[in-house]
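An example makes the point: we print one protein in full, the chain in one-letter code, the fold tokenised, without further comment:
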Amino acid sequence: MYGFINTCLKSLVIEKFGEETWEKLRTQAEVQDTFMTYQVYDDDITVKLVTEACKMLNVSAEVVLKLFGEYFFNFCKLSGYDRMLRTLGGNLMEFIENLDALHSFLSLSYQEMNAPSFRAERREDGEMLLHYYSDRRGLYHIVPGIIEAVAKDFFNSEVNMTILNQSEEEERTGQKEHVVFLVTQKKNVQKRKEKERGGKGMDKLRDKEETEEALGKMKEKYSALPHCPVKRTHWEIVRSIVMIGHGNLSNSFIPSYPDTLWIEAQAFCNAFPFHIVFDRALKVKQAGVNIQKFVPGLQTFDIQLDEYFSIVHPEVTFTIESIRKFINSQFVLKTRREMMPESWKNQPMLKLRGQMMWMESKGCMMYLCSPKLRSLQELEDRKMHIADIAQHDTTRDLILLNQQRLAEIELSNQLERKKEELRILSKNLEVEKKKTETLLYAMLPRHVANKLKEGKKVEAGEFEVCTILFSDVVTFTNICAACEPIQIVNMLNSMYSKFDRLTNVHDVYKVETIGDAYMVVGGVPIPAETHAECVANFSLGMRIAAREVTNPVTGDSIQIRVGIHTGPVLAGVVGEKMPRYCLFGDTVNTASRMESHGVPNKIHLSPTAYSALKNKDFEISERGEIEVKGKGKMTTYFLVQNLKATEDDIMGRAAGDPSQLHQENEETQDDSHDAVNPSRKSSKVDLLGDEKDQEVELSNVDVFGSDAVNTKFCILL
């Protein structure tokens, strides 16, 4: 609150006296630190701040605080509280009497709020006394500024306030400042001032016009009245023309009361099941039926009310005098646990919220209240039911509406949790989808796999020219015979891992591996003009990578044979259960023959492969004419090296950076320790061990070699 006062005081000084005065004020040493801090909670600091401002402005503290009160009221209206303030009461007294209820409502949102309390009483002479109670001392001059601004803005009246008495009274929270103001109110000041400012002739003319206009409207309404055979009094006719509630009639309302109270005591206690009547000594004289039910001690009359209840709000002592001081506040009472039956002491204590009404003729106070409950859970915790609350009590609606709101919040929370679960599942699904796609793309070309995922048929495609490579391990049969199956698997896994990385480096497609046979193709499935160069560089990389793989028998590096051939092929997807992208054609056979008729650690080229690579910066040596099985005599060649690419370029690592090689070696060592099922691998190794070393790579292709020559197709592996 004090930080807000300081901020408003700054705006007030600038608005009333100018920014130069404010700048002069803020430079003062005693005020500097206070103005720069917007969170001030010390009464003395705030009063000192106002005092310093008064010295600088050469005005009294009363004037500054009164101006601040007026500014504070306008600030509240601009902050969105205009409608709430206007509806507090139909006149100034009702407005003041309901200020405490407004503060109680606002305290639900502002927990640290420590609002003052107001109580108005009408004297016999018609004037009003305003009682102001506050824990903050020295700020009571703000009240006239607020009340006068309210009267002028809301009720079109002028108010004069005079301090009759100022004292300090002891309450539960300490000393409270009690100030009594005499409030004198004059009506229609604004209209009278307007008439005084205008000329007399203009006033008469305006009054005449207003009178004629009012009479015209009354005649229209009178003529519009339906004919009624029943004779009506003049007052009834006037009442039908004049709109009750408009103009000054609403302010002259005087209620009428019956001479006798036409309600039985039993009916009253049933109609208001939560009420208590107690005298000046706090002795209970009357109680509603349901409050007796949940506080059994109240069934005994003349018991002390403060023995069974304590006041939670406002924080005042439990006496008639203190209650009457704050009678406009909402009172919250809470049952004392020690006075409850033993079986009830473990459940939450009942809280009551309502208003106090002083009955002067009876010398008693009536507390008309209802249970302070917000949900069905709180209702059940106190062993209560909806039926225990009167039907006219809005607490029933509050509980049910709040329960509906809680149900909607819970449903919203459930939806949020489900949404989060779906988001996590979607994220996990996306990860698994990527894994599946990675595995699928490793088995099939990307564009082929995408078509299959979409359910489309993949037509076989003919490629006019491509380059195919086959390789195998020299003396692989002897190695299989001398080693355990797991050693063979680890050796092949290490070698193939290096080869697979090279396929990405040189942009070639890995078609198949069986045993020690490794097959790649360039220019398929995506045609490329450099297909021969890519496969040639890949083969040079294979030879380098093979030196890094150890022969489990001799401990030396393994040796490989490589064969390359260039020619046309037909490619397509074969099978449904485990579809594979296969190549068909005599080019496959010829490439296999280049590998099987090759030399260890040499890259064997066919004539067409040589033609595709010559004059392409490769060193190639002629092997001469050899007899090729199923092909007759052929002049073949050996690929020696790439004249412009270094070994690091071939292997796809930065020059002079051994980290890639070190990483590959670590992967090789890790692969050698992987758990593999020996029985599953040994069958294939044994099968391969029975084959001849020169024919291990493609025994099936050899069977259909003659047919492939005639039909231009062959079965691959």
Summary: Residues 14 and 20 are 8 Å apart (CA to CA). The chain has a mean pLDDT of 78.
